[in-house]
Write a structure and sequence with these properties.
By secondary structure, this protein is of the alpha+beta class. It contains 12 helices and 19 strands. The strands form 6 sheets. The chain has a 6-stranded mixed sheet, sandwiched between helices. Strands 9-12-13 form a 3-stranded antiparallel sheet, with helices on one face. A 3-stranded antiparallel sheet has the order 10-11-14. It starts with a helix and ends with a helix.
Protein backbone atom coordinates (compact mmCIF):
# COMPACT_ATOMS: atom_id res chain seq x y z
CA UNK A 1 0.00 0.00 0.00
CA UNK A 2 1.15 3.55 -0.56
CA UNK A 3 2.25 5.90 2.22
CA UNK A 4 -0.99 7.93 2.07
CA UNK A 5 -2.84 5.01 3.69
CA UNK A 6 -0.57 5.09 6.75
CA UNK A 7 -0.65 8.88 6.89
CA UNK A 8 -4.46 8.78 7.05
CA UNK A 9 -4.34 6.09 9.75
CA UNK A 10 -2.10 8.28 11.92
CA UNK A 11 -4.37 11.30 11.51
CA UNK A 12 -7.42 9.23 12.49
CA UNK A 13 -5.61 8.05 15.61
CA UNK A 14 -4.31 11.47 16.64
CA UNK A 15 -7.81 12.88 16.33
CA UNK A 16 -8.90 10.36 18.99
CA UNK A 17 -6.35 11.13 21.72
CA UNK A 18 -6.23 13.93 24.28
CA UNK A 19 -4.46 17.25 23.83
CA UNK A 20 -0.84 17.36 25.04
CA UNK A 21 -0.40 13.61 24.71
CA UNK A 22 2.11 11.25 23.18
CA UNK A 23 1.69 7.88 21.50
CA UNK A 24 4.70 5.55 21.75
CA UNK A 25 4.70 2.34 19.71
CA UNK A 26 7.33 -0.35 19.17
CA UNK A 27 7.62 -2.59 16.11
CA UNK A 28 8.67 -5.59 18.20
CA UNK A 29 11.54 -8.05 18.27
CA UNK A 30 11.94 -11.62 17.02
CA UNK A 31 11.76 -14.27 19.73
CA UNK A 32 14.54 -16.78 20.36
CA UNK A 33 13.62 -20.30 19.24
CA UNK A 34 16.64 -22.40 20.19
CA UNK A 35 20.42 -21.94 20.37
CA UNK A 36 21.19 -19.15 17.89
CA UNK A 37 17.92 -19.52 15.94
CA UNK A 38 15.01 -17.06 16.22
CA UNK A 39 11.39 -17.28 15.14
CA UNK A 40 10.60 -15.28 12.02
CA UNK A 41 9.99 -11.65 12.92
CA UNK A 42 6.48 -10.31 12.52
CA UNK A 43 5.71 -6.69 13.35
CA UNK A 44 3.30 -5.47 15.98
CA UNK A 45 0.19 -5.02 13.86
CA UNK A 46 -0.78 -1.69 15.40
CA UNK A 47 2.69 -0.31 14.65
CA UNK A 48 2.42 -1.62 11.09
CA UNK A 49 -1.07 -0.11 10.71
CA UNK A 50 0.42 3.32 11.39
CA UNK A 51 3.72 3.03 9.49
CA UNK A 52 3.73 0.15 6.98
CA UNK A 53 7.25 -0.70 8.16
CA UNK A 54 8.21 -4.34 8.61
CA UNK A 55 11.41 -4.34 10.67
CA UNK A 56 12.23 -5.04 14.29
CA UNK A 57 13.49 -2.59 16.94
CA UNK A 58 11.87 0.53 15.47
CA UNK A 59 10.06 3.11 17.58
CA UNK A 60 7.35 5.61 16.72
CA UNK A 61 6.35 8.76 18.58
CA UNK A 62 3.17 10.59 17.67
CA UNK A 63 2.30 13.77 19.54
CA UNK A 64 -0.71 16.05 19.80
CA UNK A 65 0.53 19.34 21.23
CA UNK A 66 -1.51 22.56 21.22
CA UNK A 67 -3.56 21.30 18.29
CA UNK A 68 -0.52 20.36 16.22
CA UNK A 69 0.34 16.81 15.14
CA UNK A 70 3.96 15.64 15.42
CA UNK A 71 5.43 12.39 13.98
CA UNK A 72 8.91 11.01 14.60
CA UNK A 73 10.36 7.60 13.73
CA UNK A 74 13.44 6.01 15.28
CA UNK A 75 15.28 3.36 13.26
CA UNK A 76 18.41 1.31 13.87
CA UNK A 77 21.69 2.92 12.88
CA UNK A 78 23.24 0.89 10.03
CA UNK A 79 25.87 -1.63 11.10
CA UNK A 80 27.84 -2.66 7.98
CA UNK A 81 29.60 -5.56 9.73
CA UNK A 82 26.35 -7.09 11.00
CA UNK A 83 24.66 -6.50 7.64
CA UNK A 84 27.16 -8.86 6.00
CA UNK A 85 25.51 -11.63 8.03
CA UNK A 86 21.83 -10.71 8.19
CA UNK A 87 21.22 -8.18 5.41
CA UNK A 88 20.67 -4.46 5.37
CA UNK A 89 18.44 -2.63 7.82
CA UNK A 90 16.06 0.05 6.67
CA UNK A 91 17.52 3.47 5.79
CA UNK A 92 16.00 6.86 6.55
CA UNK A 93 14.96 7.54 2.97
CA UNK A 94 13.32 4.10 2.71
CA UNK A 95 11.43 4.58 5.97
CA UNK A 96 10.15 7.95 4.78
CA UNK A 97 9.05 6.55 1.43
CA UNK A 98 7.09 3.73 3.10
CA UNK A 99 5.55 5.61 6.03
CA UNK A 100 5.39 9.23 4.90
CA UNK A 101 7.13 10.30 8.12
CA UNK A 102 9.78 12.91 7.40
CA UNK A 103 11.37 13.30 10.84
CA UNK A 104 13.51 10.17 11.26
CA UNK A 105 16.32 9.64 13.76
CA UNK A 106 18.35 6.75 15.11
CA UNK A 107 17.06 4.65 18.00
CA UNK A 108 19.86 5.61 20.38
CA UNK A 109 18.38 9.13 20.52
CA UNK A 110 14.91 7.96 21.50
CA UNK A 111 15.17 8.39 25.28
CA UNK A 112 16.50 11.92 24.95
CA UNK A 113 13.75 12.80 22.48
CA UNK A 114 11.07 11.38 24.77
CA UNK A 115 12.44 13.39 27.69
CA UNK A 116 12.38 16.55 25.58
CA UNK A 117 8.77 16.00 24.52
CA UNK A 118 7.62 15.41 28.11
CA UNK A 119 9.37 18.39 29.71
CA UNK A 120 9.13 20.98 26.95
CA UNK A 121 5.45 20.43 26.20
CA UNK A 122 3.86 19.57 29.56
CA UNK A 123 2.80 16.14 28.38
CA UNK A 124 0.06 14.68 30.58
CA UNK A 125 -0.65 11.32 28.95
CA UNK A 126 1.45 8.74 27.12
CA UNK A 127 -0.45 6.11 25.14
CA UNK A 128 1.20 2.74 24.56
CA UNK A 129 0.08 -0.62 23.18
CA UNK A 130 -0.51 -2.56 26.40
CA UNK A 131 -2.45 -5.49 24.98
CA UNK A 132 -2.68 -8.42 27.38
CA UNK A 133 -4.44 -11.65 26.42
CA UNK A 134 -4.90 -12.80 30.00
CA UNK A 135 -3.76 -12.22 33.58
CA UNK A 136 -1.05 -14.87 33.12
CA UNK A 137 0.37 -13.49 29.85
CA UNK A 138 4.10 -12.85 29.86
CA UNK A 139 5.16 -9.25 30.35
CA UNK A 140 5.95 -7.56 27.05
CA UNK A 141 8.86 -5.25 26.20
CA UNK A 142 6.37 -2.39 25.95
CA UNK A 143 4.94 -3.12 29.41
CA UNK A 144 8.41 -3.11 30.93
CA UNK A 145 9.22 0.18 29.24
CA UNK A 146 5.93 1.69 30.43
CA UNK A 147 6.97 0.96 34.02
CA UNK A 148 10.32 2.67 33.44
CA UNK A 149 8.60 5.78 32.10
CA UNK A 150 6.23 5.86 35.07
CA UNK A 151 9.12 5.59 37.52
CA UNK A 152 11.09 8.40 35.86
CA UNK A 153 8.11 10.67 35.16
CA UNK A 154 5.51 10.11 37.91
CA UNK A 155 3.53 13.15 36.73
CA UNK A 156 2.68 11.35 33.49
CA UNK A 157 -0.32 9.02 33.12
CA UNK A 158 0.27 5.86 31.06
CA UNK A 159 -2.76 4.89 28.98
CA UNK A 160 -3.54 1.95 26.72
CA UNK A 161 -3.94 2.83 23.02
CA UNK A 162 -4.82 -0.75 22.00
CA UNK A 163 -8.61 -0.44 22.12
CA UNK A 164 -8.62 2.86 20.23
CA UNK A 165 -6.54 1.42 17.38
CA UNK A 166 -8.59 -1.79 17.43
CA UNK A 167 -11.77 0.21 16.84
CA UNK A 168 -10.16 2.01 13.90
CA UNK A 169 -8.90 -1.25 12.42
CA UNK A 170 -12.36 -2.85 12.40
CA UNK A 171 -13.46 -0.67 9.46
CA UNK A 172 -11.19 -1.32 6.49
CA UNK A 173 -10.15 1.22 3.90
CA UNK A 174 -10.55 0.40 0.21
CA UNK A 175 -6.79 -0.28 0.06
CA UNK A 176 -7.00 -2.77 2.93
CA UNK A 177 -9.91 -4.57 1.29
CA UNK A 178 -7.82 -4.93 -1.86
CA UNK A 179 -5.00 -6.55 0.16
CA UNK A 180 -7.48 -9.01 1.70
CA UNK A 181 -8.83 -9.80 -1.78
CA UNK A 182 -5.31 -10.63 -2.98
CA UNK A 183 -4.81 -13.03 -0.06
CA UNK A 184 -8.20 -14.60 -0.78
CA UNK A 185 -7.40 -15.07 -4.47
CA UNK A 186 -4.21 -16.96 -3.63
CA UNK A 187 -6.03 -19.03 -1.02
CA UNK A 188 -8.72 -20.05 -3.50
CA UNK A 189 -6.09 -21.17 -6.01
CA UNK A 190 -4.44 -23.19 -3.26
CA UNK A 191 -7.71 -24.89 -2.30
CA UNK A 192 -8.43 -25.70 -5.94
CA UNK A 193 -4.97 -27.28 -6.20
CA UNK A 194 -5.45 -29.57 -3.22
CA UNK A 195 -8.98 -30.53 -4.30
CA UNK A 196 -7.63 -31.40 -7.74
CA UNK A 197 -5.09 -33.73 -6.17
CA UNK A 198 -7.15 -35.24 -3.36
CA UNK A 199 -7.59 -38.98 -3.21
CA UNK A 200 -7.97 -41.66 -0.55
CA UNK A 201 -4.72 -43.14 0.73
CA UNK A 202 -2.93 -39.82 1.12
CA UNK A 203 -1.90 -38.34 4.43
CA UNK A 204 -3.50 -35.07 5.40
CA UNK A 205 -0.12 -33.31 5.33
CA UNK A 206 0.53 -34.57 1.78
CA UNK A 207 -2.65 -32.91 0.61
CA UNK A 208 -1.82 -29.77 2.60
CA UNK A 209 1.48 -29.52 0.68
CA UNK A 210 -0.38 -28.61 -2.53
CA UNK A 211 -1.77 -25.53 -0.81
CA UNK A 212 1.68 -24.65 0.52
CA UNK A 213 3.21 -24.88 -2.94
CA UNK A 214 0.67 -22.51 -4.47
CA UNK A 215 1.12 -20.00 -1.64
CA UNK A 216 4.90 -19.97 -1.88
CA UNK A 217 4.81 -19.74 -5.67
CA UNK A 218 2.66 -16.60 -5.31
CA UNK A 219 5.07 -14.87 -2.91
CA UNK A 220 3.37 -15.81 0.36
CA UNK A 221 5.91 -16.05 3.20
CA UNK A 222 3.51 -16.76 6.06
CA UNK A 223 0.00 -18.03 6.66
CA UNK A 224 -3.04 -16.53 8.34
CA UNK A 225 -2.81 -19.41 10.85
CA UNK A 226 -1.63 -23.01 10.99
CA UNK A 227 -3.59 -24.94 8.37
CA UNK A 228 -6.30 -27.31 9.58
CA UNK A 229 -6.30 -30.40 7.34
CA UNK A 230 -8.80 -32.73 8.98
CA UNK A 231 -10.24 -35.92 7.52
CA UNK A 232 -12.97 -38.14 8.93
CA UNK A 233 -13.45 -37.82 12.68
CA UNK A 234 -10.58 -35.30 12.91
CA UNK A 235 -12.89 -32.73 11.32
CA UNK A 236 -15.02 -32.78 14.48
CA UNK A 237 -12.10 -31.25 16.42
CA UNK A 238 -12.36 -27.51 15.85
CA UNK A 239 -8.65 -26.66 15.83
CA UNK A 240 -7.10 -29.95 14.74
CA UNK A 241 -3.63 -29.16 13.35
CA UNK A 242 -1.68 -32.44 13.59
CA UNK A 243 -2.48 -33.14 9.92
CA UNK A 244 -0.81 -36.56 10.02
CA UNK A 245 -3.60 -39.12 9.52
CA UNK A 246 -4.37 -41.27 6.49
CA UNK A 247 -7.35 -40.13 4.42
CA UNK A 248 -9.79 -43.01 4.01
CA UNK A 249 -12.01 -43.74 1.01
CA UNK A 250 -15.32 -42.40 2.31
CA UNK A 251 -13.89 -39.56 4.40
CA UNK A 252 -14.92 -35.97 4.18
CA UNK A 253 -11.90 -33.67 4.32
CA UNK A 254 -12.19 -30.30 6.02
CA UNK A 255 -9.60 -27.63 5.19
CA UNK A 256 -9.56 -24.39 7.19
CA UNK A 257 -6.75 -22.22 5.85
CA UNK A 258 -5.63 -18.84 4.62
CA UNK A 259 -2.76 -17.10 2.88
CA UNK A 260 -1.29 -13.98 4.43
CA UNK A 261 -0.07 -11.33 2.02
CA UNK A 262 1.45 -8.03 3.13
CA UNK A 263 0.12 -8.87 6.60
CA UNK A 264 -3.50 -9.11 5.44
CA UNK A 265 -5.25 -12.45 5.77
CA UNK A 266 -7.73 -14.74 4.09
CA UNK A 267 -9.70 -17.32 6.08
CA UNK A 268 -11.63 -19.97 4.15
CA UNK A 269 -13.04 -23.35 5.12
CA UNK A 270 -14.20 -25.93 2.62
CA UNK A 271 -15.30 -29.53 3.17
CA UNK A 272 -15.25 -32.08 0.36
CA UNK A 273 -15.28 -35.89 -0.18
CA UNK A 274 -11.83 -37.43 -0.59
CA UNK A 275 -13.05 -39.71 -3.36
CA UNK A 276 -14.98 -36.98 -5.16
CA UNK A 277 -18.48 -38.21 -4.26
CA UNK A 278 -20.59 -37.35 -1.19
CA UNK A 279 -22.51 -40.16 0.46
CA UNK A 280 -26.21 -39.42 0.96
CA UNK A 281 -25.69 -38.74 4.68
CA UNK A 282 -22.68 -36.52 4.04
CA UNK A 283 -24.73 -34.62 1.48
CA UNK A 284 -27.56 -34.10 3.99
CA UNK A 285 -25.21 -32.68 6.62
CA UNK A 286 -23.30 -30.59 4.11
CA UNK A 287 -26.42 -29.00 2.64
CA UNK A 288 -27.72 -28.25 6.13
CA UNK A 289 -24.55 -26.26 6.89
CA UNK A 290 -24.65 -24.59 3.47
CA UNK A 291 -28.20 -23.36 4.04
CA UNK A 292 -27.14 -21.67 7.27
CA UNK A 293 -24.04 -20.23 5.61
CA UNK A 294 -26.19 -18.58 2.94
CA UNK A 295 -28.83 -17.35 5.41
CA UNK A 296 -26.20 -15.67 7.57
CA UNK A 297 -24.54 -13.95 4.61
CA UNK A 298 -27.96 -12.69 3.51
CA UNK A 299 -28.70 -11.41 7.04
CA UNK A 300 -25.55 -9.29 7.46
CA UNK A 301 -26.33 -5.61 6.89
CA UNK A 302 -25.29 -2.29 8.43
CA UNK A 303 -26.95 -1.86 11.81
CA UNK A 304 -27.37 -5.60 12.44
CA UNK A 305 -25.96 -6.69 15.81
CA UNK A 306 -23.28 -9.37 15.65
CA UNK A 307 -24.38 -10.86 18.98
CA UNK A 308 -27.99 -11.08 17.80
CA UNK A 309 -26.90 -12.64 14.52
CA UNK A 310 -24.74 -15.15 16.39
CA UNK A 311 -27.74 -16.09 18.54
CA UNK A 312 -29.97 -16.42 15.47
CA UNK A 313 -27.44 -18.57 13.64
CA UNK A 314 -27.34 -21.01 16.56
CA UNK A 315 -31.10 -21.38 16.26
CA UNK A 316 -30.83 -22.00 12.53
CA UNK A 317 -28.16 -24.66 13.06
CA UNK A 318 -30.28 -26.16 15.84
CA UNK A 319 -33.24 -26.42 13.46
CA UNK A 320 -31.03 -28.18 10.91
CA UNK A 321 -29.77 -30.61 13.55
CA UNK A 322 -33.39 -31.49 14.42
CA UNK A 323 -34.10 -32.20 10.74
CA UNK A 324 -30.99 -34.40 10.61
CA UNK A 325 -32.30 -36.45 13.54
CA UNK A 326 -29.38 -35.50 15.76
CA UNK A 327 -31.41 -33.77 18.48
CA UNK A 328 -35.07 -33.46 19.44
CA UNK A 329 -35.02 -29.75 20.27
CA UNK A 330 -32.87 -26.94 18.83
CA UNK A 331 -31.85 -25.91 22.36
CA UNK A 332 -29.57 -28.98 22.34
CA UNK A 333 -27.51 -27.62 19.44
CA UNK A 334 -24.31 -27.30 21.50
CA UNK A 335 -23.87 -31.08 21.22
CA UNK A 336 -23.00 -30.60 17.54
CA UNK A 337 -22.04 -26.91 17.23
CA UNK A 338 -20.16 -24.88 19.85
CA UNK A 339 -18.40 -21.90 18.29
CA UNK A 340 -19.33 -18.43 17.07
CA UNK A 341 -20.69 -17.78 13.59
CA UNK A 342 -17.73 -15.61 12.58
CA UNK A 343 -15.20 -12.94 13.43
CA UNK A 344 -13.60 -9.80 12.09
CA UNK A 345 -10.83 -10.40 9.54
CA UNK A 346 -7.87 -8.21 8.65
CA UNK A 347 -4.24 -7.98 9.73
CA UNK A 348 -5.05 -10.58 12.35
CA UNK A 349 -7.11 -13.63 11.41
CA UNK A 350 -9.27 -13.15 14.48
CA UNK A 351 -8.95 -9.43 14.03
CA UNK A 352 -8.94 -6.92 16.84
CA UNK A 353 -12.05 -5.21 18.17
CA UNK A 354 -15.10 -6.01 20.24
CA UNK A 355 -17.76 -8.49 19.20
CA UNK A 356 -20.54 -6.50 20.83
CA UNK A 357 -20.88 -4.39 17.68
CA UNK A 358 -23.29 -3.52 14.92
CA UNK A 359 -22.05 -4.09 11.41
CA UNK A 360 -20.77 -1.06 9.50
CA UNK A 361 -19.77 -0.63 5.86
CA UNK A 362 -16.10 -1.49 5.48
CA UNK A 363 -16.04 -4.32 7.99
CA UNK A 364 -14.77 -7.67 6.75
CA UNK A 365 -16.29 -10.64 8.58
CA UNK A 366 -16.12 -14.41 8.31
CA UNK A 367 -19.24 -16.57 8.15
CA UNK A 368 -18.50 -20.12 9.32
CA UNK A 369 -21.35 -22.37 10.45
CA UNK A 370 -20.57 -26.00 11.14
CA UNK A 371 -22.02 -29.29 12.32
CA UNK A 372 -19.72 -31.87 13.95
CA UNK A 373 -20.97 -35.43 14.42
CA UNK A 374 -18.21 -37.42 16.10
CA UNK A 375 -20.17 -40.69 16.23
CA UNK A 376 -20.65 -40.57 12.44
CA UNK A 377 -17.11 -39.32 11.71
CA UNK A 378 -18.61 -36.34 9.87
CA UNK A 379 -17.44 -32.79 10.42
CA UNK A 380 -18.62 -30.04 8.07
CA UNK A 381 -17.76 -26.34 8.18
CA UNK A 382 -18.20 -23.85 5.33
CA UNK A 383 -16.51 -20.48 5.76
CA UNK A 384 -16.66 -17.39 3.58
CA UNK A 385 -15.21 -13.90 3.99
CA UNK A 386 -17.69 -11.07 3.39
CA UNK A 387 -17.36 -7.32 3.08
CA UNK A 388 -20.14 -5.26 4.66
CA UNK A 389 -21.43 -2.59 2.28
CA UNK A 390 -24.06 0.13 2.59
CA UNK A 391 -26.62 -2.26 1.08
CA UNK A 392 -25.59 -5.60 2.61
CA UNK A 393 -22.56 -7.71 1.82
CA UNK A 394 -20.20 -8.70 -0.96
CA UNK A 395 -18.94 -12.27 -0.68
CA UNK A 396 -15.19 -11.89 -1.23
CA UNK A 397 -14.78 -15.68 -1.45
CA UNK A 398 -17.51 -16.17 -4.03
CA UNK A 399 -14.93 -17.61 -6.43
CA UNK A 400 -14.48 -20.66 -4.18
CA UNK A 401 -17.05 -23.31 -5.13
CA UNK A 402 -19.23 -24.70 -2.37
CA UNK A 403 -22.35 -26.47 -3.67
CA UNK A 404 -22.40 -30.28 -3.63
CA UNK A 405 -22.91 -30.38 -7.39
CA UNK A 406 -20.06 -27.97 -8.14
CA UNK A 407 -17.64 -29.74 -5.79
CA UNK A 408 -18.37 -33.18 -7.27
CA UNK A 409 -18.10 -31.85 -10.82
CA UNK A 410 -14.82 -30.07 -10.04
CA UNK A 411 -13.24 -33.11 -8.42
CA UNK A 412 -14.34 -35.56 -11.10
CA UNK A 413 -13.70 -33.58 -14.26
Amino acid sequence: MNKEVFEKNRVKLLNRIKENSLVVLYSGKSVKKSADEHYRFTPNRNFYYLTGIDEEDILLILAKIDGEFVEKLFIKEPNPELERWVGKSIRKEEAEKISGIKDIAYADTFNAALHSYIFNNEINDIYMDLERDSYDSLESITERYALKIKNKYPQVTIKNIYNIIAELRMVKSDEEVEEIKKAIEITIKGVHALMNNAKPGMRECELEAYFDFVCKSKGVTDYAFKTIAASGVNATVLHYVDNNCMIEDNDLVLFDLGAQLNYYNADITRTFPANGKFTERQKEVYNAVLRVNERVIEAIKPGVSYLELNKQSREWIGEECVKLGLIKDKSEVSKYYWHGIGHSLGMDTHDVGKRDIKFQPGMVWTVEPGIYIEEEKIGVRIEDDVLVTSEGTVNLTEGMIKSVEDIEAFMNR
